[in-house]
TrEMBL record:
<dbReference type="GO" id="GO:0016182">
    <property type="term" value="P:synaptic vesicle budding from endosome"/>
</dbReference>
<dbReference type="InterPro" id="IPR017105">
    <property type="entry name" value="AP3_complex_dsu"/>
</dbReference>
<comment type="similarity">
    <text>Belongs to the adaptor complexes large subunit family.</text>
</comment>
<dbReference type="GO" id="GO:0010008">
    <property type="term" value="C:endosome membrane"/>
</dbReference>
<dbReference type="Pfam" id="PF06375">
    <property type="entry name" value="AP3D1"/>
</dbReference>
<feature type="compositionally biased region" description="Acidic residues">
    <location>
        <begin position="659"/>
        <end position="676"/>
    </location>
</feature>
<dbReference type="InterPro" id="IPR016024">
    <property type="entry name" value="ARM-type_fold"/>
</dbReference>
<keyword id="KW-0653">Protein transport</keyword>
<dbReference type="GO" id="GO:0098943">
    <property type="term" value="P:neurotransmitter receptor transport, postsynaptic endosome to lysosome"/>
</dbReference>
<keyword id="KW-0677">Repeat</keyword>
<dbReference type="GO" id="GO:0006896">
    <property type="term" value="P:Golgi to vacuole transport"/>
</dbReference>
<dbReference type="GO" id="GO:0006623">
    <property type="term" value="P:protein targeting to vacuole"/>
</dbReference>
<keyword id="KW-0813">Transport</keyword>
<feature type="compositionally biased region" description="Basic and acidic residues">
    <location>
        <begin position="608"/>
        <end position="623"/>
    </location>
</feature>
<dbReference type="GO" id="GO:1904115">
    <property type="term" value="C:axon cytoplasm"/>
</dbReference>
<feature type="compositionally biased region" description="Basic and acidic residues">
    <location>
        <begin position="677"/>
        <end position="692"/>
    </location>
</feature>
<protein>
    <recommendedName>
        <fullName>AP-3 complex subunit delta domain-containing protein</fullName>
    </recommendedName>
</protein>
Length: 692
């Protein structure tokens, strides 16, 4: 007997375990079916042995093969035999196998002979994990007879002291209901109690079971609507919320009043989901996320929700300086598609994004100009929404981009005519002003092209076009539109006179708009360095002395003082008299024992000295901080250069060069201005290395 045990232990050393099976399948991709067939033959031989450990190892491999789609019903009796073992790990391996496809006569025989006594024994085990394994395994091979015999025991476990057992008992009851529907009526009160269970896992299990039951017959669960509404407004479990929403979707046709109650909580859930999207975005999934959001934008019925989606799309795409965008042509197309939304109040936001991308991403300007020219040609479709921040604000960006980057236009003359249409006069004043200003830029581009050809009359016709169309803008009620139109009209009239004399003026007109307009950093003004020799802390005018401030009396500016009859008006006193009175007053104060004497130096002079010392100290501390931050920045730069590359390094569709915001020359490198003086965490900025 001892030799037999030793021999079995030695044989086990050379048996294939689950890890060997998985590794072998991966190494035999070309003849996987043949290899698995060989493994199944080996498993059949292992199941014939008397050693329970060998059988348990074989069952583990059968579990993996069943996951791959292979039939393991031929080993049903051996699986139940291993499940009868007292060792917990063996039971766990068997509990994962599905035996629903086993022949009904065979499974009934197995259950009556082995399973029912074993499951009953484990359900009453003091070890909660043995009970849990029994419940898990029961869900895989439960039959109508087994459900009928064990329904009362499982209902008792629904009130177990351990949440682990209660959760599994609630979940297995759904399988019991399917096999033995008569158990639903006595089990329903306890199932309803589990919806208010203090353990969130048990509560989630009860919600899942009731939601699955409600799919078959939602009318039976209409009475639970108040309880589910309470759960939806108080629970933080996203999975539970999804299940409850599905349940309400089935109950709302039966009780229409539920729809009104669901508006606010559903809106909050949608906003939470949109907020989560902001942190989920990457270069790989950005386009897919925006595509899904655009579908919701098209289906949205209310303008508020649609505007919320629009804002979220732009926030997601523009976050971190367009970090996740690899194809800016796609982003421009998305912005143009958003202009087709009716009733939106975020036209200014779309326009600002168009301007920002066209200015800062040079590689996209050709595509952006073509799209903006199309918007200007179809501008009459966007002028219907004239409200504040309406979609007509997009025409502001379109006109500016076509004018500033007019060299990329295929047909600048057509765009110029579109910008001078009479319908433009109905747009808001600030948009008309941009139209007029950029029409002048387009005029310069058209002149340069026309003067390069042999047709000299074309340039004069273009000038005449502006002379005919601009008077409409000169009569505008907006002062800025009037001023710009008047100046440009006079300039064009002068150019027309020169053209009649056959003088080429294209170069001079183009020079008026030479140079690029790059974005300026918001804090550029604060970063302007102080010129040498300028002391901003010095007094511009010396403060008046104490005596002069006391003697001088402020004169009334807006009121006339009425003369007092009791006292005659005094005449102005000369400097000598003032000095004499001042000395007399000081002498009187010095001889008065009840007067508190001041220090020999004047209080004002003393204050000035203290103020000067304080400012010098602040300047020295500021210089020390600047030097320290310079050293830290250089150190961080060296460390960043040596770091690993991003795992999400996706090649962009074309070379992208984002123009940085302009700063003044010799700008200060200090970031002191970026710090919030009201930051509550500023008090924690303590040097822990200093001695107490």
């Amino acid at each position: 007997m001892a030799l037999k045990i030793v021999k079995g232990s030695i044989d086990r050393m050379f048996d294939k375990n689950l890890q060997d099976l998985v590794r072998g399948i991966r190494n035999h991709k070309e003849d996987e079916a043949k290899y698995i067939s060989t493994c199944i033959d080996e498993i059949k031989q292992e199941l014939k042995q008397d050693n329970i450990a060998v059988k348990a190892n074989a069952v583990c491999k059968l579990t993996y093969l069943q996951m791959l789609g292979y039939d393991v019903s031929w080993a049903a009796f051996n699986i139940v035999e291993v499940m009868s073992s007292s060792k917990f790990t063996y039971k766990v391996s068997c509990s994962q196998l599905q035996l629903q496809s086993v022949d009904a006569v065979l499974i009934t025989t197995i259950i009556n002979s082995v399973s029912l006594p074993l499951v009953t024994q484990d359900l009453s085990s003091p070890n909660q994990y043995d009970t849990g394994v029994a419940l898990t395994g029961l869900s895989c091979f439960v039959t109508p007879d087994l459900a009928r015999d064990l329904a009362s025991d499982i209902m008792t476990l629904m009130s177990h002291t351990k949440p682990y057992i209660r959760k599994k008992a609630v979940l297995i009851m759904y399988k019991v209901f399917l096999k033995y529907p008569e158990s639903l009526r006595p089990a329903f009160p306890r199932l309803k109690e589990k919806l208010e269970d203090p353990d969130p896992g048990v509560q989630s299990a009860a919600v899942n079971v009731i939601c699955e039951l409600a799919r078959r017959n939602p009318k039976n669960y209409l009475s639970l609507a108040p309880l589910f509404f309470k759960l939806m407004t108080s629970s933080t479990n996203n999975w539970v919320l999804i299940k409850i929403i599905k349940l309400f979707g089935a109950l709302t046709p039966l009780e229409p009043r539920l729809g009104k109650k669901l508006i606010e909580p559903l809106t909050n859930l949608i906003h939470r989901a949109l907020d989560l999207l902001y942190g989920m975005v990457s270069k790989k999934n950005l386009m897919e996320i925006v595509k899904k959001l655009m579908l919701h934008v098209d289906k949205a019925e209310g303008t508020t929700y649609r505007d919320e989606l629009l804002t979220k799309i732009i926030d997601i795409c523009s976050q971190s300086n367009y970090q996740y965008i690899t194809n800016f042509e796609w982003y421009i197309s998305i912005l143009v598609e958003l202009t087709r939304l009716e009733g939106t109040r975020h036209g200014h936001l779309i326009a600002s994004q168009m301007l920002d991308v066209a200015i800062r991403v040079k590689a996209i300007r050709v595509f952006a100009v073509a799209q903006m020219a199309t918007l200007l040609d179809n501008g009459h479709l966007l002028t219907g929404n004239m409200q504040r921040n309406g979609i007509c604000e997009v025409l502001y960006a379109a006109a500016w981009i076509c004018g500033e980057f007019s060299e990329h236009l295929e047909d600048p003359m057509q765009t110029l005519e579109a910008m001078l249409r009479p319908k433009v006069a109905t747009l808001p004043g600030h948009i008309q002003a941009v139209y007029v200003q950029n029409a002048a830029k387009l005029f310069a581009t058209v002149l340069r092209k026309q003067e390069g050809t042999t047709d000299s009359l074309a340039a004069q016709e273009t000038s005449q076009l502006l002379i005919d169309r601009l008077p409409l803008f000169v009569q505008s009620a907006n002062l800025e539109v009037q001023e710009r139109a008047s100046c440009i009209l006079q300039l064009v009239k002068y150019i027309q006179k020169l053209q009649q004399k056959e003088v080429e003026v294209a170069e001079e007109v183009t020079a008026l708009f030479a140079g690029e307009l790059n974005p300026v950093a918001p804090k550029a003004q604060k970063k302007v360095p102080v010129p040498d020799g300028l002391d901003l802390d010095a007094w511009i005018n010396e403060p008046p002395s104490e005596s002069e401030s006391e003697d001088e009396k402020p004169k009334a500016i807006f009121t006339k003082e009425e003369p007092k009859h009791t006292r005659p008006r005094h005449t102005e006193v000369d400097e000598k008299e003032l000095a004499r009175r001042r000395e007399a007053r000081k002498q009187e104060q010095a001889n008065n024992p009840f007067y508190i004497k001041t220090s020999p130096s004047s209080q004002k002079v003393h204050y000035l000295k203290l103020e000067e010392e304080r400012r010098q100290k602040e300047r020295s501390e500021r210089k020390k901080k600047e030097k320290k931050k310079k050293r830290e920045k250089h150190g961080r730069g060296r460390r960043a250069d040596s770091g690993p590359e991003s795992e999400e390094d996706i090649t962009p569709a074309h070379h992208v060069d984002i123009v940085t915001e302009e700063m003044p020359e010799n700008a200060l490198p200090s970031d002191d201005d970026d710090k919030d003086p009201n930051d509550p965490h500023k008090a924690l900025d303590i040097d822990l290395d200093k001695y107490v």
